[in-house]
């Protein structure tokens, strides 16, 4: 069915039904604004991400359900990087003429399934036509205990640098797709359906462990660079300590240049954080072990140090990750 | 200068400098999320609007400074329609290849000037390339005293229907531009630089006057329809009571069909609200008189009534305003 047959208000009606009632939402989809509560003793976190067809995704490489999931996860990942708890999502969609109602439903099914996974409620947004690309604009709101949010700016010399999960899987999948090859399904999943590390971010912030934190969206080098610049610090990073998945190691064994993707690939959505040395032992307690593997990849150094890589550095040392222009 | 020469982070740096510090913003542009406070005893209002080139605007008809202003005002208008006070803006921009740094600066100058007018702070967003159209995604956040927000759903039979300002000016300007004519500058201003009625919305909500309120973005008939549907009510509207500007009357004198634009044109960004009869006298006190003209255009009736127009109805009575598909 064509979107024009059901119309903007028909689509909004479908969404209202699919979303239902939610905690702390006083007034949800269907009025001029959503009305929500921020619990006492908490601060509000807000983040926005645009996903534009032809720039951030191709419809022939991803299905719309995955795209719906991903458009939630990449935003929620920014909440996780502050130590926040996801609460609300606002969704702007620019819909191209060839998109059908079935496509819209697939996208929304994925979007709402991911929202439910993260316990975040869709509270409103805007639906519009687009003259060309599918446009997805998500704003995510979360909450965090007063003064518990983790900025990028708190890293101090002597702090250890930690990373969750593995690096480069998503960028490798994209690279292979671009070459017309079929990547390992686990790599493709990292690209098309990444998982935001909400539980880890919450646990770290609740314990007040990280002095700085960021999620890896632009690549390790670029995002570590953001921490170093905001914190006015340098760092030593051990190349051998970079966490790499088995499929990534297998695929890069015959082509060592691809190892650079672990440094500059981007879209990993892992958490990169710094921890004062006297707090590191806490990361080896059961609470954190059950939240998945953490790798200690280096240390924060004084500002004059810059960023020093010990071991095999990426070929393009000037590369600063994915730039959007 | 090309945007690629300055890059995403260069642009973000420019914005950080332009924005500066703001009340109740704990952490603004440049981290994973913005961190803000919602004052005790208040609720959070959130609204999102997409503006996409070729659908919502044409770059050859509007300058980018005006477009920056308008992208703030249309969002703030939704806050006003709930009786809210604007606080924060999040901005997603998809920038086409032909857009220069100077264009970007013009847009942002307008955006930040309007934000300052409404005392709203830019707290973050996302900058991206676009393969074609300029894409503007704004999320506005405001606050409102607990339980003072005005929904669409509270209109009751016997309530009077009021409207601020004048109708049809913006749609008439667009119509004349589409015909290749040069409209009166005051009409063009309504189209390209509309003003959100924040002070009026705040004053009405503070006094608890409106039983329902909406801003006119889709046209009087469509937006009144939203109130009637949400409130499960009908209405009588006096055609002769519709507030029309002098330039609108002049331009439509020889072409009465254009009068329909007052009913179905849209983008008026006036406030349409309903008031219980025992509260109407308050609207004639100096506090409200100084906030600009209000017109009493009809009454709310029982649900079975539907929407009855007394006097000259628009030619297309089935027309339900601007639909986005």
Describe this structure in words.
2 copies of one chain form a homodimer. In chain A, the strands form 3 sheets. Chain A has a 6-stranded mixed sheet, sandwiched between helices. The first copy, chain A, is built from 10 helices and 12 strands. Residues 318-324 of chain A have low confidence and may be disordered. Chain A is of the alpha+beta class. In chain A, a hairpin with a 6-residue loop joins strand 1 and strand 2. Chain A folds into 2 domains: 3-145, PurM-like, N-terminal domain (60s Ribosomal Protein L30, Chain: A, 2-Layer Sandwich); 160-310, PurM-like C-terminal domain (Phosphoribosyl-aminoimidazole Synthetase, Chain A, domain 2). The first copy, chain A, is globular, with a radius of gyration of 20 Å. Chain A has helices spanning 3-19, 64-80, 101-117, 169-178, 185-192, 198-206, 220-231, 246-252, 261-264, 286-289, and strands spanning 25-27, 34-36, 42-52, 85-95, 121-129, 135-145, 160-164, 212-215, 234-238, 271-275, 294-301, 307-310. Chains A and B meet through helix 1, strand 2, strand 3, strand 4 and strand 5 of A and helix 1, strand 2, strand 3, strand 4 and strand 5 of B. Strand 2 (34-36) of chain A pairs antiparallel with strand 3 (42-52) of chain B, so a sheet runs across the interface.
């Amino acid at each position: 069915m064509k979107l024009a047959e059901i119309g903007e208000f028909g689509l909004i009606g479908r969404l209202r039904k699919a979303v239902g009632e939610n905690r702390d939402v006083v007034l949800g989809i269907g009025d001029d604004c959503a009305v929500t509560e921020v619990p006492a003793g908490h601060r509000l976190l807000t983040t926005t991400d645009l996903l534009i067809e032809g720039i951030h995704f191709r419809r022939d490489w991803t299905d719309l359900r995955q795209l719906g999931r991903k458009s939630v996860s990449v935003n929620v990942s920014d909440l996780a990087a502050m130590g926040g708890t996801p609460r609300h999502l606002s969704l702007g969609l620019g819909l191209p003429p060839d998109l059908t109602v079935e496509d819209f439903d697939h996208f929304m099914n994925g979007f709402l399934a991911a929202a439910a996974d993260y316990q975040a409620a869709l509270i409103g947004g805007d639906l519009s036509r687009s003259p060309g690309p599918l446009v997805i604009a998500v704003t995510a709101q979360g909450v965090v205990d007063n003064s518990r949010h983790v900025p990028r700016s708190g890293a101090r010399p002597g702090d250890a640098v930690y990373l969750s999960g593995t690096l480069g899987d998503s960028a490798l999948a994209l690279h292979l797709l671009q070459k017309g090859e079929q990547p390992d399904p686990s790599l493709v999943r990292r690209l098309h359906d990444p998982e935001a590390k909400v539980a880890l971010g919450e646990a770290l912030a609740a314990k007040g462990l990280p002095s700085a934190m960021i999620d890896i969206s632009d690549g390790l080098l670029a995002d570590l660079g953001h921490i170093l610049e905001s914190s006015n610090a340098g760092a030593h990073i051990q190349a051998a300590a970079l966490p790499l998945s088995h499929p990534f190691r297998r695929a890069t064994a015959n082509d060592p240049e691809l190892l650079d993707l672990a440094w500059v690939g981007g879209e990993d959505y892992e958490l990169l954080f710094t921890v004062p040395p006297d707090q590191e032992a806490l990361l080896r307690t059961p609470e954190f072990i059950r939240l998945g593997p953490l790798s200690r990849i280096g240390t924060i150094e004084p500002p004059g140090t810059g960023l020093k890589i010990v071991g095999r550095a990426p070929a393009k040392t000037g590369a600063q990750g994915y730039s959007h222009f």
